């Protein structure tokens, strides 16, 4: 397994020329821990240390899926990550603890699969929430409906989900019957992540894509109790059909989100209609001449969908305001330090003069 199996291509190679000139080599982060990463380099798997943030203002925090510039070492596993190649896309969520700092969960993701089980009642709000995160990443969302064998009315379910996923491919599968897998394979490109709540069939789907049982599924987990995964290289797996499957436990449940464009894309039909509202800053609540409310009245857009859009807008504005407050606080702290430093310098200089 080398970088080619993990998506290294001629474009990336071109952008890496400067690093090559400095004796650095490319690698992809398979698993990131504090200060250390498992990466795959041209020679195969390597354990590498993230170099301490000495010069850079931002600390170097690689995450799963990152391409990095590696300073190789003759000693085994003594390679150092010198730089992160700028991310093309990233799945980011507001930190789990409810703080406002975003946490990058996966980098350089091309296809974000939103996995929805047909065995359970469909929850449109949850699908919209994950879709917003998927769009926001910069990757292409695809919805995969699983467990079609457990659903009495598949066309109706497909209709309902398609209604909350404008512009997104929605595919129906059944792992038990083996239905729809070839179409899913055809819809995926590059680095693929599977998002969705526990038990919807992500591991089962992942195994179908991998062509072998490398991810422990719910059934296996409960019988052998061996935890989720069965391989050491567990978080970035090359697919036999090309591309890479990125499977990170932290990605499975999705918490609070910080999205801007992602929301517009998730609710694209509302955003499009909003262009016809009389007021450009229309909130689509009570305004006269509101094209969105007119569409809700006529049944073109379900009231639930508008409510969901407004709820996510509010939630996002709240997270945004908190993160602005954090930035302000950080700036103030920095300014205070700067003032203290200047005072010390002045004091020292005047001390020198008096000597
Ligand atoms: N009937 C049916 N059952 C399925 C299908 N796909 C998955 N399952 C079952 O659903 C259960 C959960 O599947 P998993 O693949 O473990 O779900 P998961 O989303 O990976 O769950 P977490 O790992 O907890 O996030 C297992 O018992 C699977 O066998 C399907 O297409 N049809
Ligand atoms: Zn309006």
UniProtKB/TrEMBL annotation:
This is Small ribosomal subunit biogenesis GTPase RsgA. Belongs to the TRAFAC class YlqF/YawG GTPase family. RsgA subfamily. Binds 1 zinc ion per subunit. It comes from the Bacteria. It holds the Pfam family RsgA_GTPase. GTP binds at residues 146-149, 196-204. The lineage of its organism: Bacteria, Bacillati, Actinomycetota, Actinomycetes, Mycobacteriales. NCBIfam families: ribosome small subunit-dependent GTPase A (TIGR00157). Its cofactor is Zn(2+). One of several proteins that assist in the late maturation steps of the functional core of the 30S ribosomal subunit. Helps release RbfA from mature subunits. May play a role in the assembly of ribosomal proteins into the subunit. Circularly permuted GTPase that catalyzes slow GTP hydrolysis, GTPase activity is stimulated by the 30S ribosomal subunit. Keywords: Cytoplasm, GTP-binding, Hydrolase, Metal-binding, Nucleotide-binding, Ribosome biogenesis, RNA-binding, rRNA-binding, Zinc.
